[in-house]
Specification:
Layout lengths: L1 H18 L6 E15 L7 E2 L1 E13 L4 E16 L1 E9 L6 E3 L8 E4 L14 E25 L2 E25 L2 E10 L7 E13 L2 E10 L15 E11 L1 E2 L1
Length: 254
């Protein structure tokens, strides 16, 4: 048994030695952390606000010298935003009580309020309705950043590049209050909107990282440069991702 432990220890020694060698030309850095994401480009200033998410993946870096390198990464990246809106939609109950149909907006109308802490005061005894609040758009991407790395000081690195984001899933969520046949229901709506969005978008990552004994703290701002969707809504026709990501990683030299 002691011989087995000795063999295992000897097998791991090259990896431990490489991991401690921060001057290696080629390094691998697994990372995990969080995102704070929002949408930019809306003409309605209070329409969106940041939401928190998760990010995890790995960067592979090749250093041309002690000062410069280039990296390629693959990450699972949560983006999107909270939507500051409240929507009230009255509806007609069908005669057979098996269906509901929205009231013609040109007659009674659908009421929408936009802004932080948006809400609508209305008479809940006036009839049937759907009332939606606390909207959120969750966009999950596989992100592929290509970065130029400048090692500007001991352990401190500046980063700049281009990132491709491939859409994996997209959901629109909201709190839903529905009154139907005199009974009020409270539910969570969760709608798949992936087919309404661009399957691939681009951003420019700008960041800094600091490495101490191979432990690396990395902070990046992802500046969206392509629209997340084509929409007829004139207020959101230029909507782009805007995301801050902070991760903790460990550098392995190879």
């Amino acid at each position: 048994m002691k011989n087995l432990f000795l063999i295992a220890a000897l097998a791991l020694m090259p990896w431990v030695t490489n991991a401690q060698n921060s001057n290696s030309k080629f390094t691998i850095t697994p990372r995990i952390g969080m995102t704070v994401s929002d949408f930019s480009g809306s003409k309605l200033k209070e329409a969106y606000s940041p939401k928190a998410g998760f990010v995890a993946g790995v960067d592979a870096e090749y250093n041309f010298s002690k000062l410069f390198g280039v990296s390629l990464g693959v990450f699972y990246n949560m983006q999107g935003a909270k939507e500051n809106a409240a929507v009230l939609m009255p509806f007609n109950e069908s005669t057979n009580n098996s269906e509901i149909s929205p009231v013609n907006p040109s007659t009674t109308g659908i009421t929408t309020v936009i802004g932080k802490n948006a809400h609508i005061d209305f008479d809940r005894n006036a009839g049937s309705y759907i009332y939606l609040t606390d909207f959120r758009t969750d966009l999950n991407y596989i992100s592929i950043p290509v970065l130029a790395q400048a090692h500007v000081w001991k352990g401190l690195t500046a980063k700049l590049g281009i990132q491709t984001d491939v859409l994996v899933s997209a959901r629109s969520k909201a709190n839903e209050e529905v009154k139907y046949n005199g009974v009020t229901y409270f539910e969570k709506s969760n709608t798949d909107i992936k087919d309404k969005l661009h399957s691939c978008v681009f951003s420019i990552p700008v960041g800094l990282s600091y490495t101490y004994k191979n432990i690396e703290l990395d902070a990046r701002y992802l500046w969206g440069i392509s629209k997340v969707a084509d929409t007829k809504d004139k207020n959101d026709k230029d909507l782009k991702n805007s995301t801050f990501a902070i991760t903790l990683g460990y550098r392995f030299g190879l």
